[in-house]
């Protein structure tokens, strides 16, 4: 487990492709074909993330469990620890608005896209809060999620490639610390 992380970190440090969000046209970004909500449900651990703004106090042990409400809606049961180590729990409701695309009900102008997932191991997820007039994104959101607290280099690379094809600067991804605490 620890060595998988180490390898992934080395890959991050030396696989420097500094993509720029503002080169990909949002409408051209490839998302997961034939998205299957049922297979996507369940627990995902956050392994890497990048947001359009700086966060000084990142969460640890962040994961969420997706539970179906009906064919177009699901709820995300979020668990994590604040920077000080305090646990938090939060439910967020989502609506599916198209293949691989969903929105937070209470924050509907910030869609999430599943760029790539094999459902069993990893997911690369994308979001854009602000679109430039030329159709590109002004700093995107991106995440790599795993079904486990760690992930193999193979699955990490698949997720990383998906983020790179959406012009996410993967060299700037931040790692979510997953401890052994539940
Ligand atoms: C789109 O516009 C942004 C902001 O003006 C700019 O930084 C970016 O280079 C442009 N991208 C393309 C592909 O023209
Ligand atoms: C699915 O659930 C949502 C949220 O509870 C509700 O607004 C929507 O009408 C439901 N859709 C169907 C098809 O039942
Ligand atoms: C998930 O990863 C395991 C281990 O590498 C592999 O055997 C399995 O086929 C993967 N699942 C899918 C759906 O690709
Ligand atoms: C993930 O963890 C589960 C149980 O903890 C294990 O059965 C499975 O093999 C693991 N999958 C991978 C890809 O490591």
UniProtKB/TrEMBL annotation:
Single GO biological process annotation from the record: lipid metabolic process
Organism of derivation: Lottia gigantea (Giant owl limpet)
Domain Lipocalin/cytosolic fatty-acid binding: 42-179
Protein name stated in the entry: Lipocalin/cytosolic fatty-acid binding domain-containing protein
Keywords, sorted A to Z: Disulfide bond, Lipid-binding, Signal
InterPro entries: Calycin, Invtbrt_color, Lipocalin_ApoD, Lipocalin_CS, Lipocln_cytosolic_FA-bd_dom
Pfam families to which the protein is assigned, alphabetical: Lipocalin
Protein family per UniProt: Belongs to the calycin superfamily. Lipocalin family.
Classification of source organism: Eukaryota, Metazoa, Spiralia, Lophotrochozoa, Mollusca
UniProt signal peptide: 1-19
Keyword Acetylation assigned: no
PANTHER family: APOLIPOPROTEIN D
GO terms, molecular function: lipid binding; pigment binding
Superkingdom, taxonomy of origin: Eukaryota
């Amino acid at each position: 487990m620890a060595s998988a992380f180490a390898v992934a970190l080395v890959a991050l440090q030396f696989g420097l492709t500094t993509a720029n969000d503002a080169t990909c046209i949002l409408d051209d970004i490839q998302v997961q074909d034939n998205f299957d909500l049922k297979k996507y449900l369940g627990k995902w651990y956050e392994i890497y993330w990048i947001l359009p703004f700086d966060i000084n106090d990142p969460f640890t042990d962040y994961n969420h469990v997706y539970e179906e409400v009906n064919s177009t809606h699901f709820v995300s049961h979020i668990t994590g620890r604040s920077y000080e180590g305090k646990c938090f729990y939060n439910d967020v409701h989502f609506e599916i608005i198209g293949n691989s695309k969903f929105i937070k009900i209470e924050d509907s102008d910030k869609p999430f896209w599943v760029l790539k997932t094999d459902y069993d191991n990893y997911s690369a997820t994308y979001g854009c809060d602000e679109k430039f007039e030329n159709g590109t994104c002004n700093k995107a959101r991106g995440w790599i999620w795993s079904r486990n607290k760690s992930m193999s280099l193979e699955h990490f690379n698949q997720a990383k490639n998906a983020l790179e094809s959406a012009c996410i600067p993967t060299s700037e991804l931040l790692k979510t610390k997953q401890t052994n605490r539940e």
